[in-house]
Amino acid sequence: MKILVINGPNLNMLGLRDKDQYGSFTLDDLNGIILNHFKDIEFDFFQSNHEGEIIDKLQTFSKYDGIIINPGAFTHYSYAIRDSIELISIDVIEVHISSVDSREEFRRKSVTAPVCTGKISGFKEYSYILGIEYLVRNL
Ligand code: DQA
Known about the structure:
Bound molecules: 1,3,4-trihydroxy-5-OXO-cyclohexanecarboxylic acid
Strand content: 15-25%
Number of helices: 5
Structural class: alpha/beta
Order of helices and strands: EHHEHEHEEH
Shape: globular
């Protein structure tokens, strides 16, 4: 089983971002936590600050069994990423570290979640673990 984990803009800056919202772990820490938790699963970790690069990566979906994506701020307005997810035939789970529904109004809207299998938000690094757990149990 091979799972693609995509992190969008500014998630390479974890560790320096608002610790109340995002905790104090770095992106490398997060990827390490995932690897440690799911020792038998093969992962491809991808981070980009660029919408087009995220779309290019999503278009390689046929190499994977499932996708976890944290689109960062693109969540709230990228119809291009939404369209890319819409045609993907495998499960795509949207995850957020912070609780997007209890923050600013603009974060409550996700244009990408309606074309994902589901959305997990507010459980810090465990949002990723829970999403991957779903993929593992349903594949
Ligand atoms: C985020 C929430 C987004 O609103 C924000 O723009 C991010 C991170 C999260 O993981 O909580 O960059 O996706």
